[in-house]
Amino acid sequence: MKLRCLLLALLAVAGAATAQDIRLPDYERVVLDNGAVLLLAEKHDVPLIGMRATMRGGSVTDPADKAGLSHLLAAALQKGAGGRDAAAFAEAAASVGGFVDVAAALESTDLTAEFLSRDVELMIELVADLLMRPALAEDEFEKERERASALISAARDGSVGGLMPAYAGAFIFGDHAYGKAPRGSESTLAAIEHADLQHHYEAHFGGDRLILSVVGDFDLAAMKARLSEVFGAWEAASGELPTLEPAPRIEGRRVLLVDKPGAQQTYFWMGNVGVGIDYAQRADLRIANTLFGGRFTSMLMTALRVEAGLTYGARSAVAQHSTPGHVTIRSSAETAMTVEAIDMAIALLGKLHEDGADEEMVASARNYIMGQFPPTLETAASLATTFAWLELYGLGRDYIDTYGTALEAVTPETLAAAVGDVYPVSDNLLIVLVGDAEAIRDAVARYGPVTEMSITEPRFRPASE
Length: 465
Hints:
Helix content: 40-55%
Largest sheet: 6 strands, mixed
CATH architecture of the largest domain: 2-Layer Sandwich
Structural class: alpha+beta
CATH topology of the largest domain: Cytochrome Bc1 Complex, Chain A, domain 1
Distance between the termini: 48 Å
Strand order of the largest sheet: 1-2-8-3-7-6
CATH class of the largest domain: Alpha Beta
């Protein structure tokens, strides 16, 4: 808490940069003999050190019938390591105001740590223990598996908004690695045993998978030597990373209706496969999504919430990974207003394609992004995260350094081209609905062939698939 208060106080007096001024600080990239990559940068404005340890892999490595395994492993890693049990490990970090967290993402498992620079040795010790010497205790695994399953079941009984990404991902991507629910389902979690956890760790954790990014108040030469000593002998992971082929875009319309009897509102997602992280017109895409559904004054939010009063929120998202992710519109509406809300969202998608944006709209979104972006590169922890992310996806520092220039170059014409590349037309939409099927079944048949399943099924795909 004291560490975060210090950080917030310092940020409060920091000046804002313009997008043209955004440049990453210099950092050193070191590849150890075992394949581990170190990314190091000194930053002496505050006595803090931020660390990001990214392990290549993530939930795409989960077996299809054991989806959620990487998520359980990430949780288990924090429950004791290097001779410390869960309580002792947590206390070691908390006693000096430090912070260590692990989370599984789609294509990586990421450790984030932040400590005062005086405690750098403890920081390195805890991170090394967690990554290389985790306890992976069976009782802690059982608790995490039970908790993960209970959270999903509770969401099915309550507000299902948090489950929509799992339903949508499965429907859009099918058997592709991106179609697996990152946190699993009740059925896949039940299939995971403690031995699977240990095997998954050995298969996907090792020196060859490690990207270790450290930024802060330290001497670079000394840090490089220390990290090389600690992590340089870590053996390679025993497994192989999956080869990911691009998922195909879906032609036509299809509907997945997840029945939740008596639901007072319908949650809906609609979209298709988009583009990967290497898409060249990234600035055009960012501005387009900001205008369409990426801020409170977006087209979707203005029409569906402010003007029509159909929903509390409506947003769009473009997920980009090593291969194309999804492009989606998401919202919810009272059951009786379901069709009206969906029709309006589809009409706005058509408007985006047909009308695009004028100079004033482009400038507005550009200024919004310029105001939001610099703070993401101000702290040691945020810089460490950025360096690791660039390395994970094979992107050079120019990806950040040229961002402001790329934003300035966006015109209504280039934006229109990006919209045509990325956003699906209204005739090619996959639509996922969670609501009272009895009340909306007939009405939503207008959108395309409907596949139906129950909210009580312990999975996110119909049993027939």
